[in-house]
Amino acid sequence: MDPGVPQRWSRLRPVATGWLVLVAAALAVHAAVHGTPTADRVYLAVMWAAAAGAWWGAFRQGLRAPAVLVALGVTLTAVGDVFWFLQTWAGQAPDVSIADAIYIGGYVALGLGLWRMADTRGRTRGQQLDGWLDGAGVFVAVLILVWQLSVAGTVTDTTLPVLTRSVWALYPALDAAVIGLVFRLVATRTRGERAPLAVAVGAGCWLASDLGFLLLADPDPVSVWFDTGWLAGAVLLAVAAGSGGSATRSDAGEAVPGLARLAVSLGALLVPAGLEVLRGVTGAAGAPLTVFGGTLVLAGLVFLRTARVLRAEAAARALVGTQQRHSAALARHSSDAIAVLDEDGRLLSDPAWLAALLGGTAPRNSRELVDLCGIDREQAQAVLARCHQAGGTVVEAELTAVRDDELRWIGVRLVDLRTDPDVGGTVAHLTDITDRKRAEQALAHQATHDTLTGLANRALFADRVDQALRRRARGGPSGAVVFIDLDGFKAVNDSLGHQAGDALLITVADRLRSAVRAGDTVARLGGDEFAVLVEQADDGTDEVGATAARVLDVLGRPMHLAGQRVAISGSVGIAVAHDGATAESLVRDADIAMYAAKVAGRGRSVVFDPAMRAAALERRRLEQELTGALAADQFRLVYQPVVDLADERVVGFEALLRWESPTLGAVAHNDFVPVAEELGLIGDIGAWVLREACRTAAAWRREHAGAADTTMAVNVSAVQLASADLLDHVRAALAASGLPAEALVLEVTETALVDDPERAAESLVALRELGVRMALDDFGTGYSSLGYLRQFTVDVLKVDRSFVATIADDGEVPAIVRGLIDLGRALDLEVVAEGVETAAQRDLLAAGRCDRAQGYLFARPLEATDAELLLLGQRPGTPATGRARS
Fold it and tell me: Nearest-CA neighbor of 650 among 700, 684, 688?
């Protein structure tokens, strides 16, 4: 059957209503014309209308088996009426005929329909058995009743044939069976079902008519009531066929409560006693044996039913006990504390497990519970009042508590169930959420703080600066940003590893904390960049300058990392807030000032000046161009000769790096090398210089016999010297070019040595083990030169041009120059003078026993081709006028 059929038939409800109205009118007409031939025709019309209505209902129900069986029962009854009336009209109406067989068939179909209509889906076997016991008890009680009132007299009436007595006695018995099935149906029906009620009333109408017909000796005077009862029963059964199964199990609930059903079962025991009373009053004859037998059967059924009720009650009690123990076990092992409080704050729930969960003495009321949790009483009272105002809605809150001098958080969920008869109070769930709150705080801290150092991160620092600027706008103290960048951090990271670099950053963070006031904010902005927010009153006090001085002082103190002594410094930029400044612009200006401090020589502080912004933009442009310079083949080497002062023979060259940018033009060596170091490009650039210089020197030595002893000097920066890659770069350059190791001279400055003496000493030893010669460049310009010279093993000592420039043409060598030359010779070092520009300087240096020299007197830095020609000519170039840095 199409599932859409019931929906389509449901639209025909007006038709069903009209049908019922017509049937009711027909019943009224039948009663009015009773006793006339018309009454018989009206009777048949109503019966067939009931049959038609039953089938209409069956179709409406999708031809479900219960509806079809009920419709069949009503139809067989109508067919039996047709046969009975035909026989009556023909004057041949026997006591028992084919009509009775059809009637009985109708009863059987109706009984099967009632049995199927009692839907047992979703019910246990025990519930089904209870339904059958209830129905059987009612059946036996009604059977006893009809036996005493009718069936016994009919069966014992010897004036009637046996078949007639049997058939007439069968009708009340069938009615009793129908009544039993009806009670089972009514007792097990789901709420909202109308069919069982219609069947119950209809079966009652048939039973009343059957009993009246059998009991009365002359039923004709009141036969209209019997006919009406049969017709009404048929109509109601038709209604049952059309409305059965309209409810669903989802809204189930037995129509007859358990006590009512038990009362009906026990009430059935009163039927035999009632019959005895009736017999005693009326003096009617009875059948004690029948009553006794029926009573035994009823007693057995009631006993079974009562036993099942008792077992069900015991099972229910056991289930309740199990559920209580289950709930108690869950409560004992739950992280939540559950309390039920009455109107006066008394504790209705078991306080024992509350004490076990929370510790301490079992609370008796809300005040003791609050004290046990460590919650503030005013907070708790406010939340409880809010719960009572919410009208049964769940109220949630997070309350702070202090227990054992420790701050904790308690999550509270309350609901007002004082009007609920099963609860009768306010239910409170208390959960210790301290771990969650601490985790949330940790996450919030991680979002605003640097994970390595614990300092504020860039986002939090920007927010603090923004707040300081707003306070300044309202007349508060002036704010300033101190921007700090570590000098030499990359060398430490590369040489000692990232773990040592992290340890250095942590140490720096601790030192910065110690150098600032309690109200200042210290932040790590990323990498080795730090910042301090300083707020100072406009009273002339230079607090930001004092802070910068303390920062430089603490950073300049050596530290020990990975078993080594490490010395770093910091370049500091200062930007003071001004009108129109923002957090972003103030940090940017301090950053620009920090770069100015780094360019000025590092280890110092510089206050931002607006003119620096243009320089910073120029530097950014330089960084951008420098990043791709090596790949674009924009670098080249020039070579400045080194001559022997004894005979002015060219004995070597110093390779000097030059950069010609397509957009910036020629960039000075001192301008781009520091930038390359900061950007981390100096390693690749230095490796290229080594390869190119070694290749050129090796080619000259191979191609020219007179150049067999020519050396090539290459400058190595402090960053390169601290890098673990330098040794590999030198080894690779020598192997690729074929240049002997002793022909390569690596020049390092004093600054490169004193930045990290231990690391520098290790690098020098490893390089000299390759056979490479080492030169100390710009000697005498640094600090602690004599002390460190004893520590480092070098081969060449180069006297800085600043000392050579002090040699005048009056024939005297300054004491400082003479002392440097004598020191080198005393240490058995080759001494080379830089920046020789006059013949007098040359002659005085030669007379002072200086070994070699280089400078514009001999030649400017030459392109490779010109340097090779000079090498072949074995004569110095034309002296140049003016001074320039080589």
Answer: 700
Secondary structure class of 795 (helix, strand, coil): coil
Contact 198, 239 (CB under 8 A): yes
Q: Of 220 and 679, which is predicted with more confidence? A: 679
Reference 854, options 637, 652, 646, 636; nearest CA is 652
In this structure, are residues 512 and 533 in contact, taking their beta carbons and an 8 Å threshold?
A: no
The answer for residues whose C-beta is within 8 angstroms of residue 78's C-beta and 6 or more apart is: 44, 47, 48, 50, 51, 234
Q: Which of 465, 553, 477 is nearest to 515 (CA)?
A: 553
Residue linked to tokens 């049997």: 166
Residues whose CB falls within 8 Å of the CB of residue 883, separated by 6 or more in sequence, listed in order: 805, 835, 837, 856
- Locate 677 and state its tokens: 């170091």
Residue with tokens 């007693």: 299
pLDDT in tens, 508-517: 999 999 999 9
Q: Tens digit of pLDDT for each residue in 395-417?
A: 888 888 887 777 888 888 888 88
- Alpha-carbon distance of 114 to 141, in angstroms, equals 19
Q: With a threshold of 0.85, does the pTM exceed it? A: no
Does the pLDDT at position 715 exceed 50? yes
Pair 475, 523: CB distance under 8 Å: no
Q: In what order do the strands lie in the sheet with 605-607?
A: 521-526, 529-536, 478-487, 569-576, 605-607
H runs (alpha helix) in 474-569 = 489-496, 498-515, 543-555
**Helix/strand/coil for 566:** strand
Which segment of 139-148, 574-583, 597-606, 671-680 scores lowest on mean pLDDT?
Answer: 139-148
Measured in degrees and rounded to the nearest 5, phi and psi for residue 79 equal -65, -40
Q: How far does the chain reach from its first CA to its final CA, in angstroms?
A: 106
User: Which residue type occupies 391?
Assistant: G
Phi (first) and psi of residue 799, to 5 degrees: -80, 130
- Residue 136 reports pLDDT greater than 80: no
Would you place residue 8 in the very low, low, confident or very high pLDDT band (cuts 50, 70, 90)?
very low
- Say how far apart CA 322 and CA 282 lie, in whole Å: 57
Angle at the Cα of 339 from the Cα atoms of 334 and 345, rounded to 5 degrees? 165
How many residues make up the chain in this entry?
A: 886
Cross-strand bridge partners of residue 574 = 482, 607
CA quadruple 777, 779, 782, 786: dihedral sign = positive
Q: Under a CB-based contact definition with an 8 Å cutoff, are residues 868 and 640 in contact?
A: no
CA 449 to chain centre: 22
- Which residues, including other chains, have CB under 8 Å from residue 851's CB and lie 6 or more apart? 644, 645, 830, 831, 832
Residue 865 CB neighbour total at 10 angstroms: 8
- What CA–CA distance (Å, rounded) separates 835 from 883? 8
